Known about the structure:
Layout: E1 4-11, H1 21-30, H2 41-62, H3 70-88, E2 92-99, H4 106-116, E3 120-125, H5 132-148, E4 155-157, H6 165-178, E5 188-195, H7 199-203, H8 208-221, E6 230-235, H9 248-257, E7 261-266, H10 274-290, E8 296-298, H11 306-318
Parallel strand pairs: 1-2, 1-3, 3-4, 5-6, 5-7, 7-8
Helix pairs in contact: 1-2, 3-11, 6-8, 6-11
Amino acid sequence: MSKKTAVIMFNLGGPDNLDAVKPFLFNLFYDPAIITLPNPFRWLIAKSISAKRAPIAREIYKKIGNKSPIVEETEKQRLALETTLNKSSSNDYKCFFFMRYWHPLARDVVNEVKSYEPDEIILLPLYPQYSVTTTGTGLIEWNKWAKKNNLNAPYRVIKDYPDHDFFVETIASMIKEKTKNINNISEYRLLLSAHGLPKKTIDSGDLYQKHVEMTCAALMKKFDHENIDHVICYQSRVGPMEWIGPSTDAEIERAAFDGKNIIMVPVAFVSEHSETLVELDIEYKELAKKLAIKDYIRIDTVSDRQCFIDGLSELVLQNRILDD
């Protein structure tokens, strides 16, 4: 009799309409992994920030169809992974996903998983680099609702995969495809852009920045013989706190000063959403144009490309608890 494995993929999420923007932001900032103050201070700050940022965020989402595309993007990844897993084994695999701050939420997906009656569960973050603010808080949320709903199947967590070859090779192949007709690559600088974090989060021992650097080091090994100009940078800063750097917009300005064209590479996002479709494709591209940068190339996220999905499948198979 074949065994049943539930694979639980998870990501940050995003509003599915303009009315959802404010409650999505509240959920984000009310998370103790994001705002570390105790209640009622955290609740008050989350209410204040979400109210102030909602009008700005709504304008951002209006540029990409009045919502985040992350659920549709993740559904493509879910379906591709489930198909790949079931082709590779006689056992039964069913993939699910939840979002940390908007629907589908862990509290709802837990019930779907329980109805499936899995023999084992594999938790798979769609964050290649670990942070307590992403993978960490997602696992806490899942475990809370699994416990409340008596979902007791044995489980294993895939914590991170920042420099795994399937991930960096997928990015490298997309860079090579997009730049194959460039005659002089020395005229370009790769901006390896990741979502930023407050410096105090990193100073407290969070692994995220180290993992981003691991990703970028592994990626550039794919181009060793070409010695491509590159820099790691961080985007999406929010609030007055000091964030890790250098910032992506500052590096665009430096590239202009150095007379370089830009190849923008998202190295910490695995699907398209507002940070790529608005920040990278619109705002930073407009900044580059304003600074008279002649060419601005943006590399896509890995999304559901088969090399990436095959790698996720291998990770799941390697982390199974039960034997075939």
